[in-house]
Write a structure and sequence with these properties.
Pathway: Phospholipid metabolism; Lipid metabolism. Residues 50-148 form the Methyltransferase type domain. The chain is globular, with a radius of gyration of 16 Å. It has 9 helices and 7 strands. By secondary structure, the chain is α/β, with parallel strands linked by helices. Helix 7 (130-140) links the parallel strand 4 and strand 5 (141-151). Helix 1 (3-12) crosses helix 2.
């Protein structure tokens, strides 16, 4: 297996020494992408937020700075990521402003209508059943709560060769912008907005419960 394939495989469930390297790289490489997506939403200073697939924890840290009177929760199904993200945010965890759990998008460990906002950066590729998983997220959103999903890859002919290689090596599932929109609509979301950054092959969706 090539080094690139090993790294892409680690993106699904980072673990061990290689996973730590990949997660630290994600904290850096996803920063601009995440900022682009976050500019599409208006987070209130007292929001209660969930970050799904929190990886190395930098997005959690960023979200916490946007909601200084609120609280940010994170989940990841890699226990190593939970530990790394907790360490990255140790001061916020100690202050009670951040909580991070080992959990999956299939069964979120939260009560109904808990969150104002849910984010998922570079994770939807790996979800086992996207429509069902989006429904589970909708369960924990408050009425009119919003979800933001950000990906740095979508189906596009200009990037086909590169993306096909990523899909093969990393066992990813990617979508066209139209397919992306339909997934949210099938899960029962309203006001679905899809935006792309065509020159970078980035895509994000904002949808409302």
């Amino acid at each position: 297996m090539s080094d690139m394939a090993k790294r892409l495989n680690q993106c699904r469930k980072p673990a061990g020494d290689t996973g730590k390297v990949v997660v630290e790289d994600m904290n850096e490489s996803h920063f601009e992408l995440t900022g682009w997506g976050l500019r599409k939403v208006n987070i209130q200073e007292n929001s209660k937020i969930l970050d799904i697939g929190c990886g190395g924890g930098r997005t959690i840290n960023r979200l916490a700075s946007l909601t200084p009177k609120g609280k940010v929760f994170g989940i990841d199904y890699s226990i190593d990521c939970v530990n790394w993200a907790s360490d990255y945010n140790k001061d916020l965890v100690a202050q009670g402003k951040v909580e991070i759990y080992n959990a999956t998008v299939e069964k979120l460990p939260f009560e109904d209508e808990k969150f104002d906002f849910v984010s998922a950066v570079e994770t939807i590729y790996f979800w086992p059943d996207v429509v069902d998983n989006l429904k589970e997220i909708k369960r924990v959103l408050k009425p009119s709560g919003k979800i933001l999903v950000i990906n740095e890859i979508y189906k596009d002919e200009k990037f086909k060769d590169r993306n096909d290689e990523y899909v093969k090596m990393g066992n990813l599932k990617i979508y066209t912008p139209k397919e992306f929109e339909e997934l949210f609509k099938k899960a029962g979301y309203r006001n679905v907005q899809i935006e792309i950054k065509e020159e970078k092959n980035w895509i994000c969706s904002v949808a409302e419960k």
